[in-house]
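Recall the central idea of this unit: under ordinary conditions, the amino acid sequence of a chain determines the structure it adopts. In this exercise we apply that idea directly, starting from the sequence alone.
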Amino acid sequence: MSRQYPKYPLVGVGAVVINDGKILLVKRANEPGKGKLSIPGGMVNAGEDPGNAAVRELEEETGLKGEVSLLLGVYQYVEHDDEGNVKYHFILLDYLINVKGGSLKASSDAAEVLFIDLNNALNMNLTETTKELINDILSKGVSSCIGSRSIIMH
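Accordingly, the structure predicted from this sequence is:
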């Protein structure tokens, strides 16, 4: 199924890596959100466990290996075109990941990778769902960040 104008919402995952008060962000190389910063992530393959997908996407985009610690939240991203049609619709499962090795480097869908102080991250050019995630982490703390938000773009 195409990512643009899907018949049904697509399932994606995000890998949340936090180290010394800094969150790992990637500069998106592709739409939606090209040029904006977001957590590493991507689509769940058919038959793939979502947690495993988050770990896979982390390694593909950043070179880091890890393991799932916690499901932080479930988010939604919907973008409409000028005629009101649904151009993108993703259900996103964001997992806290403990890094277990690898070398930090941009690859695949990431034009750049960087650690940004959580308190300064909201001043950056973030995707809307990343902004919501960081707001949740800052307001609730990582361990109590389990929740659900929806982002609808018109």
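The longest strand covers residues 64-80.
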